[in-house]
Task: inverse folding
């Protein structure tokens, strides 16, 4: 079995678990840094290992366009190409086809679209997405779905859901490489009965894990958490649950409380590039701002990341951003990714130690 | 004594030596990576230590403008500001005042100029430069000089030299912090007798080390080596000699053969940022070029840097440059700085082992 449920929190739906992939153990709840284009922005694989990242993301859509599948096949997959030895989850490309590409035409078998880079035409559907993820040879493969736009009327959401279910069945029928795990994705927008129906049908189709998608697309936080509440109870206890593209530290901990095991988000790397650092219980501070020009303390005195542990000061980091030096981006990105991985570690330890509710309260 | 001469090559003027600063030992011949704005571009202090860099450069002109001396004083100097524990040499700012700034007006006591960043007005002369380098608290302080432009007539070069000698005397008279070493700079353009005269006068003034400046400013390689030949024999044997801003691997080894101990150059970091990697005996290859898109070998199979040792392929690095990812710049910069530090190590070992002439021939 790829997933072991180790402990359940008695006061919430939080779970402590363990996924075993071909590349090692992934302890859940887990935060997965995003490596869109075969690199977690600004970080090296060695740094990610030192940060104890057990799994990172790759993006089918981006890698399909550049470097393209011929190079990826010649490289022998994404692990070998990017020199990352631990687990990789790849998305299906569905989200990016709908959010980035142009001139989309949806057919029953997938989407015709024009690349956002140079306008060249491609077709991506469940058959193609599974073939790409076979070539990438990721450890966890996501089914191809339609990310329902927000807002959507009930009828729009239902129509989109029907297409998603067709595509997920087709995704399920494709052959994968030995040991690749395949996750289904629950859609259904903000509609409880659609989410529930989707969850039930996916369980019937049968996947190794289940994601909740179509969140973090502009809806409110209560709507997002409601989507989780609508789906999670209908997903099998003995399979991992992944909330796609979420989120803030608070959203992560609230979703863990609702039974979610896996998270990914560009926030730590994106805010890192823009000079914002996570501190405390999910707050951010704009390290690159002039007000830190004479602040000779680290981002967070209590943080154990390379930047804080070695007393790189806010004044220094602010200077690096002010003059456009790469080391500034590197230090804040390292700090932020550490923050999210450390948050997941704290969550795991709290579930193990029976103190999850206390930890959760700190983030309110 | 800050400098120990350990061994002289019997077949050339090459020397193996050791400088002791307040921050440790610097084994010569040495290559000093350039950290213009309080960071060696794209690298972290931890990486530089792992690369065995024993000394790096900082730039007075750039640090004077940003973050400025108030912040540098509050930080307690450049070491503390940038978190670098080993030795630092700072230039005097003279070179940048002449190459970067605008609206220069030269007076007997220094230069009035407008910042290249925002046009604000400043004055920098020997008194100011020494004060700044006291605040930076670098281990090796460079005298303030005029970098004679190239080409210069004999009369222009002589006039510039006279000003330089005045400024170097003034630089010598300023008080430094305990343990700071002070280097004079030989100017004189391409004119042998001016170089010789400058060297003799500087030795009379008395410095802890001697630099050869006004090179790498557009002159030919033979002219540059001739400038070294004109000055080196008149510099004391028991003081380190530093060829400023040089150069290619071949230029470095040729200058070592002429008795130079110290080098700095932006080439490894600048070419690294632009995707060119040093290989073999000083050649470069454009790793970011399309022709490497399917080359699944490292930059250099025999190289011991992080990128090559861990088999990051040219295809991967090319992809990173192609999509604009920071890791590409990091990997090629690391490789190039390793190349130059490793070149200096090979030179030191060759002098020790009596094989310097053989090594030198490989770079012809």
Result:
């Amino acid at each position: 079995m790829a997933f072991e449920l180790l402990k359940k929190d008695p006061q919430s739906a939080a779970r402590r678990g363990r996924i075993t992939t071909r590349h090692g153990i992934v302890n859940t709840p887990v935060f997965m840094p995003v490596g869109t284009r075969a690199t977690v922005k600004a970080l090296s694989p060695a740094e990610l290992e030192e940060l104890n990242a057990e799994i990172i993301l790759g993006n089918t859509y981006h890698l399909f366009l550049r470097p393209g599948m011929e190079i990826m096949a010649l490289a022998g997959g994404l692990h070998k190409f990017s020199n990352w030895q631990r687990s990789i989850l790849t998305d299906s490309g569905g989200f990016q086809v709908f959010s980035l590409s142009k001139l989309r035409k949806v057919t029953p078998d997938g989407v015709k679209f024009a690349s956002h880079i140079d306008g060249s035409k491609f077709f991506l559907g469940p058959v193609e997405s599974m073939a790409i993820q076979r070539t990438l040879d990721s450890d966890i493969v996501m089914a191809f779905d339609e990310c329902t736009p927000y807002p959507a009327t009930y009828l729009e959401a239902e129509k989109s859901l029907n297409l998603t279910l067709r595509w997920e069945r087709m995704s399920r029928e494709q052959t994968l490489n030995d040991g690749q795990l395949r996750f289904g994705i629950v859609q259904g927008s903000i509609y409880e009965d659609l989410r529930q129906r989707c969850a039930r049908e996916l369980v019937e189709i049968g996947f190794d894990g289940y994601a909740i998608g179509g969140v973090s697309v502009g809806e409110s936080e209560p709507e997002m958490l409601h989507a989780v509440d609508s789906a999670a109870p209908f997903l099998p206890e003995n399979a991992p649950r992944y909330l796609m593209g979420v989120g803030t530290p608070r959203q992560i901990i609230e979703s863990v409380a609702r039974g979610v095991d896996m998270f990914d988000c560009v926030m730590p790397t994106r805010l890192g590039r823009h000079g914002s650092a996570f501190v405390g219980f999910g707050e951010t501070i704009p390290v690159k701002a002039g007000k830190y020009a004479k602040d000779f303390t680290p981002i967070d005195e209590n943080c154990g990341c390379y930047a804080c542990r070695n007393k790189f000061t806010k004044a220094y980091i602010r200077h690096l951003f002010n003059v456009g030096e790469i080391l500034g981006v590197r230090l804040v990105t390292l700090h932020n990714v550490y923050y999210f991985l450390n948050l997941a570690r704290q969550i795991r330890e709290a579930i193990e130690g029976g103190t999850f509710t206390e930890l959760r309260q700190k983030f309110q």
In short: The first helix of chain A runs from residue 45 to 50.
